[in-house]
Amino acid sequence: MKKGFQRSDRVAEQVRRDLADLIRVELKDPRVGMISLTAVELTPDYAHAKVFFTTLDSEHLAEIQVGLKRASGFLRRELGRRIHIHTLPELHFVYDNSLERGASMSQLIDQASALSDLTPED
After folding, report:
1. Do 83 and 13 meet the contact criterion of CB atoms below 8 Å apart?
2. Closest Cα partner for 53 from 84, 88, 24, 26?
3. Strands in the chain per DSSP E
């Protein structure tokens, strides 16, 4: 039997889109500038949502996290006005370092490739 998107996947994606829009348009906190929401994971009862984000300004990560935590109540309330589900999730923001890890892995591969080009072949 082919399994499509489950309802929780659709709700998580809708939460991600609406939160991204709210952060971009409504949030006035200067600490929370250029961030991108990469994913949202909901608990089965929709009580909690892990919101994964990334930023180009990783040197100010602590300030961004404080700003997001401070704005979570506002974002949750505004999200409730946009999405009508029985339980509105409590928002937990988690930094997603996969882009940085990917870039460093790519750099390591490039370095290893450059070294292998320098070694003589038998």
Report:
1. no
2. 24
3. 35-42, 48-55, 90-95
2: pLDDT strictly greater than 60? no
Residue 67 CB contacts under 8 Å (≥ 6 apart), including other chains: 29, 30, 31, 32
The Cα 110–Cα 104 span in angstroms is 10
The two three-digit tokens of residue 66, written as one number: 């404080």
What CATH number belongs to 7-97?
Answer: 3.30.300.20
3 by Cβ neighbours in 10 Å (0-12 / 13-18 / 19+) ranks as: exposed
Q: Is the pTM of this model over 0.85?
A: no
